Amino acid sequence: MQKMNSETKQSIYKDLKEWIIVLSSFLIINCFLFQPFKIPSGSMVPTLLVGDFLIANKYCYGYSNDSFRIWNFTIPLPKITQRLFAKNMPQAGDIVVFRNEKDRNVNYIKRIIGLPGDKIELKDGIVYVNDVALKVTEAGEFTDIEKGEYRIYKKYIETLPNGYEHVIVKIRNFGESDTDNCGPYYVPDGHYFVMGDNRDNSQDSRFAKAVGFIPLENIMGKAMCIFFSTKCSWYEIQKWLFSLRLDRFFTAIK
Predict the structure, then answer these.
(1) 4-51 pLDDT per residue, tens
(2) Fewer CB in 10 Å around end: N or C, the chain?
(3) Percent of residues, the chain, with pLDDT higher than 90
(4) What are residue 166's DSSP bridge partners?
(5) Cα four-point dihedral sign 61, 67, 68, 69
């Protein structure tokens, strides 16, 4: 009996050690390297769709207190006054995951349009950066299902001042949306101006009371790739077979 107890204890210690290693590895990967996120809204259509699961690069911009956030829990650490191990800064065109200063319980994901010191203004839906209009060219249509209804968007290619090209969509014609004429916005030092690619359906830096400018310290990471995508809720496993978007699996985010 004594021998059995000793073997049982060794087995428990071994299992506990393995679980500690697994949990520690999970925390290290999520805090320092890569973290998964789910897209809950259509603000980044067509780049990101509702039901996309993506991986964000946590180390590319260095680390702040908000980097050490897993789901809705932030690991309590002493205040980090500047980003640690920062080798690169966010650039125009980057899609970033960040905490909204106005609602810190929610993770947001948008595209960086304005850098610190930039002047941003919208005139008839065209974005002006430092008084220069961004080039916009037609690129056909994009169809998506939202709340069970088909939506047909007009698709465009927008070119940022650094030459970065990305897709945007609009439901309304240029100049017809409430947010097609707004600004100017002057981006403070250490902050960024972000917008959704779905220009008529995105709560972003255009809405000062809801989002506003994004402090660098609130940025958690850069969206890197989609690893899973489904049209149904993740828990509706019985629907996965007919709801998976296989063509979006393991695709780079641009």
Answers:
(1) 566 665 666 665 665 666 565 556 556 656 688 888 889 999 999 999
(2) N
(3) 57
(4) 158
(5) negative
Question: Which residues lie below 8 Å from residue 9, measured CB to CB, with a gap of 6+?
Answer: none
In DSSP notation, 107-134 reads EEEEEEEE-TT-EEEEETTEEEETTEEP
**Catalytic residue ranges:** 43, 110
Number of domains in the chain: 1
Q: Which domain holds residue 67?
A: 2-252
CATH number at residue 236: 2.10.109.10
Sole residue written with tokens 């000793």: 6
Q: Which of 169, 174, 144, 146 is nearest to 156 (CA)?
A: 169
Cα separation, 134 vs 149, in Å, equals 32
β-bridge mates for residue 156, sequence order = 138, 168
Q: What is the pTM for the complete model shown?
A: 0.83
Tokens found for residue 15: 């299992």
Question: Between the CA of residue 121 and those of 50, 54, 62, 201, what are the distances in Å?
Answer: 28, 30, 30, 18
- For the chain, where are the alpha helices, taking DSSP H only? 2-28, 240-243
